[in-house]
Write a structure and sequence with these properties.
Layout: E1 2-3, H1 12-19, H2 22-26, H3 31-43, E2 49-53, H4 61-67, E3 71-76, H5 79-88, E4 93-96, E5 109-115, H6 123-135, E6 137-147, E7 152-159, E8 162-168, H7 171-180, E9 184-193, E10 203-211
Parallel strand pairs: 2-3, 2-5, 3-4, 5-6
Antiparallel strand pairs: 1-7, 6-10, 7-8, 9-10
Length: 214
């Protein structure tokens, strides 16, 4: 991601509608994400209810979890991403929804995963969204997330050719919010990842695996 001068930025829905299937190509085979999905798959009971926040094209998270026999619901702000996900993963359910306003079903989910959905929003919204997602994890359930960490608010960048305004929280604040929301972190690490493509720049990725006590 490269920094850009101040200018009007696209919303998350607009930018991901425009990016579409290219996202799956540029961010293919992210080791930390694949490991997080494998961790979820290994710790869930049969036919678990899973929510994939920011489900994108449905790959790899929703596809892998649905193939493992779980009941996967994916939400994404982008209508184009939802369309692609429905084509790619017909055994899961996808809907256009915003994590900031989504209403989870009573009882929540056995697992919630969120791979990079919280960056194109304001910093207070990042914290509130983390708390909301944590609250959807049922007792004994699991949570896996990834983001680009940093104490950043309202930074204008160019990302995949589009101007967006991004925010995030430092690693210690991400973990604090999840802890205060009742989740116990069982693993976290930061890894440098270089997206595919000639103009791609390496970016740090924070991965967190957590559980809600039974």
């Amino acid at each position: 991601m490269s920094q850009a001068p101040r200018s009007p930025s696209l919303s998350a829905a607009d930018v991901f509608d425009a990016v579409g299937a290219r996202y799956e190509e540029v961010f293919a085979d992210v080791p930390g994400q694949l490991a997080a999905v494998a961790w979820l798959t290994g710790c869930l009971p049969p036919a678990a209810r899973v929510l994939d926040v920011g489900s994108g094209t449905g790959r790899p998270a929703a596809e892998t979890l649905a193939r493992a026999g779980h009941a996967v619901t994916g939400i994404d702000v982008s209508a184009e991403m939802v369309r692609l996900a429905r084509e790619r993963v017909p055994t899961a359910s996808f809907e256009q929804a915003d994590v900031r306003t989504y209403r989870a079903p009573e009882g929540g989910f056995d697992a919630v995963c969120a791979f990079f959905p919280l960056l194109v929003m304001d910093q207070p919204e990042v914290e509130r969204s983390l708390r909301r997602m944590a609250s959807w994890v049922a007792p004994g359930g699991a949570f896996a997330m990834a983001t680009v960490p940093g104490d950043v608010r309202g930074l204008d960048i160019v990302w995949m050719g589009h101007r967006v305004t991004v925010s995030s929280l430092a690693t210690e604040d991400q973990l604090r919010v999840l802890r205060e929301a009742g989740l116990e972190t069982v693993h976290h690490h930061t890894a440098l990842y270089r997206p595919h493509g000639p103009d791609a720049e390496p970016e740090p990725h924070l991965y967190v695996h957590a559980r809600r006590p039974s």
